[in-house]
Amino acid sequence: MAHEELLARTDFFGDAPAALIRDLAASGSELPLIRGDVLFREGDVAESLYLVISGRVAIAIANPIDHRETVVALMDAGDLFGEMSLLDDGPRSALARALEPSTVFAIPFDPVVRAFRSDPALLWGVTRLLATRLRVMDEALADSVFLDVTGRTAKRLLELSDGHDEFQLPITQEELAGMVGASRERVNKAIASFIRLGWIDQHDRRYVLLKRDALELRAR
Question: Which of 11, 40, 154, 205 is the most exposed place for a label (fewest CB within 10 A)?
Fold first, then answer.
């Protein structure tokens, strides 16, 4: 899919005219990534926002004491990220790392800022994106308060299955633990309980959901 089409599908640029989308696409460049490549780290100076063309990128926050990461979001093809520093001129607030071979499209801040200044109505797209981010954060906060580790593990597995009953876990057990917000040992214990109950089958990173309804109930 062309860069222009992907940009036009994002909330951020959904109201932008076709000519502006073409100009922004012309100003950007593709960056190929291998698994583990870091696009930016917390505290880095920011100059671009990114659109995922293919693959998957994790947005994570590292604990300054033990450096253990908590994955706060997964960016798939078509997702835009890295926009926060554009809006407040601050440094990066999190780390972005490729979870698999990926391609991202980097768009410099300058032409985006000029577009917003020339047509403030475009900022409605920014508002929609920020509202979506807040809803995701609210849900994550509710999960941390109302769900135990087993419930959060069930919910993350359902999310990562993308609606399929058989799937390959796209992240490592350590990264899954980061998404759940618990130690790897506690997450593995939760998965072992699902296997024991006959809800899932697991071999390495291959998962089969045998009783999706039971997992969905546990994730509430």
Answer: 205
